[in-house]
Design goal:
2 copies of one chain form a homodimer.
Chain A (H helix, E strand, L loop, with lengths): L1 H16 L3 H10 L4 E2 H8 L3 H13 L3 E6 L2 E6 L1 H13 L23
Antiparallel strand pairs in A: 1-3, 2-3
Chain A binds a DNA duplex (30 and 30 nucleotides) through α3 and α4.
Chain lengths: ~110, ~110
DNA sequence: TTGACTGATCAACGTTCGTTGATGTATTGT
DNA sequence: ACAATACATCAACGAACGTTGATCAGTCAA
């Protein structure tokens, strides 16, 4: 119960992190490996504070991690989190048996499910 | 490579559709098959207009379809779309070879990638 | 120490989102 | 024809989001 709701909030937050084009482009760039913010900045052509904002959203959703080294901050994907999200989606595909069938309860006054 | 910016906007829209707890609960309910709005309403305990709003978001993102029959409107998942999203996520997992490696370009003045 | 550089954070602003309550529109049973 | 049901749509409102420009903090080289 509690756990389920917590997971829903977590999940919503993770999907939200991917609901923006700029962040999707960041993810694309990180597929080839860890990148520092300045390189992402060059690649995306976004203002520094804007990029920082989006990286924060991705980080707080758990999709990326950051690693400080000297004056650079390196960001990388967390593949296990992407995998969890993919698994969620695959688990939500309805059974073929349920396709097109009305799954309504029989509690209607009229006849919902003829 | 994978699709152009058009697809990015579409993708962002689809992830946005899953970025809300109410909509995630709707998806959960639809896994067991097609449902009419009134049953979703009972199951979720949301106001009718609120539910209608969320169903519209899911529909316009392509995650569900609706089917009118008599005075009922039946919603169901579109499994192929969920599958596409899952595939996207699995394709974005970095190669293991790239884990932890700095993929920065060599264009920095200082030494970013020692 | 000074100055250049990386990057986070903040305030301000306009835009989008989600909720509520009301109204509109089919469809159906009486 | 009338009333009830199922559902979409609208207007209004506050909350959350994304952008910009400014400021601040830490690191490094000269």
């Amino acid at each position: 119960m509690y756990g389920a709701d917590l997971d829903l909030a977590q999940l919503a937050r993770r999907f939200h992190a991917l609901s923006d084009e700029t962040r999707l482009r960041i993810v694309d760039l990180l597929v080839s490996g860890e990148k520092c913010v300045c390189d992402l900045q060059d690649a995306i052509g976004a203002a520094q504070s804007r990029l920082s904002f989006h990286l924060r959203v991705l980080r707080e959703a758990g999709l990326v991690r950051d690693r400080r080294q000297g004056r650079w901050n390196f960001y990388s994907l967390r593949p296990e989190v992407l995998e969890q999200m993919a698994a969620y989606l695959r688990e939500r595909r309805p059974d073929e048996a349920a396709w097109g069938a009305c799954g309504c309860t029989e509690t209607h006054e009229g006849r919902c499910c003829d």
